[in-house]
Amino acid sequence: MLLDVNDLKVSFHSREGVNHAVKGISFSLEKGKTLAIVGESGSGKSVTCMGLTRLLPPPPNCLIEGQALLDGTDTLSLSSKQLRAIRGKQIAYIFQEPSTSLNPYYTVGSQIAEAIRYHRKDVDDVWGEVVSLLDQVGIRDAGKRCRDYPHQMSGGMKQRVMIAMALACQPRILIADEPTTALDVTIEAQIIDLLRELRSAHDMSIILITHNFGIVDGFADEIAVMFRGEIVENGPAESILAKPQHPYTQALIRCIPKLGEKRERLPVVDYSSFAS
Any residues with CB less than 8 A from the CB of 172 and at least 6 apart, and which? Predict the structure, then answer.
């Protein structure tokens, strides 16, 4: 198993009290496979994945407990220096909003080049590698566009730049946090197709964070459904999509719009039937 997470807990401490954002969850990820973590905003999906490499406030503001075993090495017990070698090189992130993740003061090419210089010191032609990466993610005229600033690109292109930046370090695990947020359905499909192609080409594993079951079908191998900091259902994607067992999973799937089906409004998730 490439990644094995055991009893992961994340809590935030403040003057108002303690917020238990993640409440002892466990899951695993195989090499070359895709795990989709599905749930509404605030269910703990992003906090879970950021906790794997401790991309959260340090104690006492935030306390992370449990194990995150990457090839048997617990990333939660590593020093800050050791973690810097893991972040990007072993586990890379595509964050939710590319417009705020990219630095507006630097060209997109220079931002990708920075990651290459830090993690891949064996690369002699860094700029050539930047152009190659942008070409791989489907940006036309990559040699010219790599000198553009983020504001000169559309939302879909900026998301492709974020994917190129994540690929720059040749990670073993790619964590895609809502990679299609704020994109229209056509671009959304292109991004998911691109991730599928890159997973195969680079033999990567992917953790897809999403609230949308509509983009999971045909892409994820496994699904973990999160509700209020807990995994309420997990298993093979085909099984969960065909016969969801938990009422929350059933409610989320009923919210997927279907072609030819006329509704006055989407179904409302009734928390009273499954809230703990």
Answer: 2, 31, 90, 91, 204, 205
Catalogue all structural domains in the chain, each as residue range(s) with its CATH number.
1-74+205-269 (3.40.50.300)
Give just the sign of the alpha carbon dihedral 144, 150, 152, 156: positive
Q: Which residues of the chain have pLDDT under 50?
A: none
Relative to beta strand 34-38, strand 3-14 is unpaired
What's the pLDDT at 5?
97
Kindly report the backbone phi and psi dihedral angles of residue 149, in degrees, each rounded to the nearest multiple of 5, phi listed first: -90, 160
Write the DSSP string, 139-208: -TTHHHHTTS-GGGS-HHHHHHHHHHHHHTT--SEEEEESTTTT--HHHHHHHHHHHHHHHHHHT-EEEE
**Do 49 and 37 meet the contact criterion of CB atoms below 8 Å apart?**
yes
pLDDT at 33: 95
Q: Quick: pLDDT tens for 128-158.
A: 999 999 999 999 999 999 999 999 999 889 9
